[in-house]
Each structure stands twice: as structure tokens, then as C-alpha cells.
Amino acid sequence: MRKTAFAVAATLLVFAGATTVNASPSRDDSWNPVVHQSTSVAEAGRATKQRAKRERYASRERAKKVRYAARRYESDASDASERRATRQRARGQRARYAARRAEARRYASESYSSSGYSGGAGPRPRAWCGWWMRTQRGGGAHLNLAWNWSKWGSPSSPQVGAVVVWRHHVGEIVGRAPNGQWLVRSGNDGGAVRTRARSVAGAVFRMG
Fold this sequence. Notes:
The chain is an alpha+beta fold and 208 residues long.
């Protein structure tokens, strides 16, 4: 009898416990505005951090582009400056070359016109010292070659009025310098007609 009563009591206790557990309310925060607000704040914070990260990345990329553009500009400016300097140097060289040529033509023309020679030496060749001597002493076109003057006229000693002939140059002695060297006037001496003291060692002397 007592066993039966104990079993019934135990059954009642188990049933009561199950009812109590089932009756306990579950955690449902969907109705709680505080919980919703906390979730929204957290999501907003994450979005703000992501946006700030994207902005920092975009700012770094813009800075890179600005630095690259600045380097390109400096390089282009330097190249342009170098090109301008090169063009200016080239213009200066052309101007100096043209001035030297004009001076050489003027000297040759003055010497030709003041020589009194009217036989006509023909067009001036590229190596024109022999040609210039023809404007002073006459002679055929074969004397355009400097060394051919070594067979012109008759042999002579170095003296004023003598033609002095080197292997690749020819001129005429017009005086003597204080240092004892002979003053030689010749054409195509540095691109012009010039008179200067020169050593005549090894040269041939001729008189017409």
C-alpha cells in the first residue's frame, strides 16, 4: 500500500516539474526596444568603420596618382628644357658656322679683287689654298693642288715674295716676325685668308 502511495506521489512530482518547466517563458527579445537599439548601433558602427576604411584607401590611391602626375610633370618639364637647350646650342653652332663661312668668302673676295689678277681662277674648290694662290700669281687649274706649286717658277730661298709650298698647303712670304719666323699669307688657313708667323722648315720655295 505504501509502495503504491509512494509511486503515485513520485508520478505527481514528475508531472508537476514538467508542467513548471513548460510554463517557464522562453527568452524572446523581439519586444524589447533596448535590444533592438543596441543591435542597430553595432551595425552602424561596423558600417562606419568599413566606410572609413574605404575612404582611407581611396585617399591613398589619390595621393599616389598625384605623386605620379607630379613626377611625370617634372620629367616632361626637364625633357622639354633639355630639348630647348639642344635647339639653342644647334642654332648657335649654325650661326657661328655661317659667320665663319661668310668671313672666309669675304676674305677670299677681297684678296681676289685686290690682287689685280683678271684671268679668272674658276670656282673655288673645297681645299682652296692653291686656288687662292692662283688669284695672286696666275696659273692653270692644276695649281689648285697645293703640291703642284712646288714645280711652279724656279727654285728659291726663303725670302719676301717667294711662294712657300708644303705637302698640303701653299702660301706666300710677305715679311718676317720679331721671333725670326717668316710671315706667310695663305688662303684656306683655318677657313680664311690669313697672315701669320709660321715655321717653314721642310718647305719648298719658288719664285715666278
